[in-house]
Design a protein that fits this description.
CATH class of the largest domain: Mainly Alpha
Strand content: under 5%
Largest sheet: none
Number of helices: 9
Length: 198
């Protein structure tokens, strides 16, 4: 039998990072814990296959991504899914929140370039980058579940739009529109939070 390329303690030391990653994708603490447990069990069972060509964390996140996708697929098959007749982009009152971004004539009520210019400055300053990442996480968490899930699957997990749409529970034809709505809402949220801080 081959000697494991990492110890159980080394494996378990990665748990907080994996749990944060899973929570950000699933938005369910208990389900995230179960996914991480599945990941750790699979990694330990396959420990002799770890070649060291990547870091242990990268290898574990790769395993976890598949566990999370399995869970998202299982959610799609559950009978307790959200009402598909309700628009995915609507707030709790059924109103499209993007209407507040535009005047009656279609002009922006906010400056859409402000947050983007702040993003361009961030690589030069690691402190600002960390703060911006925190703001982005807050804004992402503020999105309705369907938009957050679709945006995360497409942009963070880099799935193809069709697969991201399927896992998010939306049609492939509506996914580009919903992704645009998510980006606009994120930009609006970032703009408001960055403007409030200045």
């Amino acid at each position: 039998m081959d000697v494991p390329s990492f110890t159980l303690e080394t494996l378990l030391a990665e748990t907080p990072v994996l749990l944060a990653y899973a929570r950000a994708r699933l938005h369910d603490h208990h389900e995230a814990e179960e996914a991480v447990q599945d990941c750790l069990l699979a990694a330990w069972a396959q420990r002799t296959e770890f070649s060291g060509r990547s870091t242990l964390r990268t290898w574990l996140v790769g395993i976890l991504r598949y566990k999370l996708l399995d869970r998202l697929r299982a959610r799609r098959r559950r009978p307790d899914r959200p009402d598909p007749s309700r628009p995915a982009f609507a707030d709790d009152d059924g109103v499209d929140p993007l209407e507040s971004c535009f005047t009656a004539h279609g002009a922006w009520r906010i400056d859409p370039t402000h947050a983007m210019s702040a993003l361009a400055d961030c690589p030069r300053d690691s402190t600002l980058r960390g703060e911006l990442q925190g703001l982005l996480r807050l804004c992402l968490d503020a999105l309705p579940d369907t938009l957050r899930r679709l945006f995360s699957l497409r942009e963070l997990d880099q799935l193809e739009t069709r697969e991201a749409a399927e896992l998010a529970g939306v049609s492939a034809s509506s996914a580009p529109v919903l992704l645009t709505r998510a980006r606009l809402r994120l930009r609006d949220c970032l703009q408001q939070r960055l403007t409030a801080d200045t």
